[in-house]
Amino acid sequence: MRIKTALISVSDKVGLAEFARELSANGVKIISSGGTHDFLRRNGIEASKVEDVTGFPEVLDGRVKTLHPKIHAGILARRDLKHLQQLKRHGIEPIDLVVVNLYPFRETIAKKSSTLEEAIENIDIGGPSLIRGAAKNHKSVGVIVEPAQYEKVLGDLRKNGFGLSEKMRAWLAVEAFQHTAFYDSVISQYLAENVGAEKFPEKFTFACEKKGALRYGENPHQKAFLYANPTETHCTIVGARQLNGKELSYNNYLDADSALNIVMDFEEPTAVIVKHNNPCGVATGRVIAEAFAKALECDRASAFGGVICLNRECDFRTAEAITSFFSEVVVAPSFGKDALEELSKKPNLRLLETGKFVGPSQGIEFRQVMGGLLVQEKDVAEVGGRGKEEWKNVGGVKASKELLEDLKFAWKVVKRVRSNAIALAKGGAAVGIGVGQTSRLDSTENALRKAGKKAKGSALASDAFFPFRDSIDLAASAGVKAIVEPGGSVRDEEVIKAAKENGVALYFTGVRHFRH
After folding, report:
1. Residues noted as catalytic
2. What is the pLDDT confidence band of residue 383, given thresholds at 50, 70 and 90?
3. Which of the residues 207, 341, 466, 502 has an alpha carbon 20 to 30 A from that of 239?
């Protein structure tokens, strides 16, 4: 069916003149509103005003333009005899193509200076109605929602005597409903954050926009894509700027995100090395180069091919240390000019510049399970739940000031390790990390084995309680001097007794940090 009449009302004028000119040249009558009409006329393209069709002017400062039966009936009418007779009886012309951009809501809220009032004024009402009407009636009507679709639509029109194919109309309808669903989700997310709405609503929607394809998923036979949250304002891996290296993989993104979450828990210069979504090196220092050197010493073998994250600008000294061995990704707030030159000598090394850290998001996180989603608050509890000064010393043996600082450090690290998790710390650095074992004793053994002689005099953190005394005895035999854990086991007294007998300081936090 040949396109005879098109309604065009767009805020994004990119490519519009060329597109509309070809429509007009092929005998398509164009109806347009406000600024779109002025733009078309300036470009020598004939167009009728919406108000000339409806017989009613724009009102309420432009809030009402196209919400009129002569527009919506023209779009929604089925092309059967009954509907066409009704249109004819009421003097309504069928509309065969709808070209609409929605008000720039997302661009408005992205501005730091934007207000709630400005955001509300950029919530489109007429546009989604036009798009949904055209998409519903896609057996007869085509709908375009963004300039990127112009050339594809024109190609289809040229091949089909300037009529849209059934396949093209169906594809455009799917795109249209995805477009309006995304638009409404962005609005609902923004309003929920700004008017104090329920964090866990009855109907959960989450708007994300495709940024691009990844090389592959967790494995080469799996396809993978990256999507971005348009309302996120915190420092993120997705929002980071890539300065060097090949494309990031699915696993690179997971590891980089894990590393970024860890360093955000530290105020001091801190370096993190992550491998297979677990930290294998974490350390603080007076300067970032010192922090990185200490982090690398935790587990050099595991650090090979890992992801590095720094919470300070990467300087030349740190860059030199990084280029001395193989790594996949380096994440930092910024890179010094000489550091960037040094790191760029490795053409495949991916460098991500996040900009100034503003702290982790306080929002929610979710994971897909078969049949639905698991949704929870992010684990942003302070170290020790309420701070180390409120930890409960349960064994009577008190840790020194230095050991308390190492306990605090280890507790921050173990929070980000896959459970069952054990972290050993000494001198502001992780010296042994036991990850993801089904037995807490196995995790303890792994952490102590990784630490070796460095376990002597160290502090140990466990993400959950010890169910038996065996881990306490094992840690003490390796020279561990202080332990922090949540407590809450039915065998707490047995564990406390073991700590006393071994002369180990034991603190309960009352807060668990499982990371499944």
Report:
1. 136, 276
2. very low
3. 341
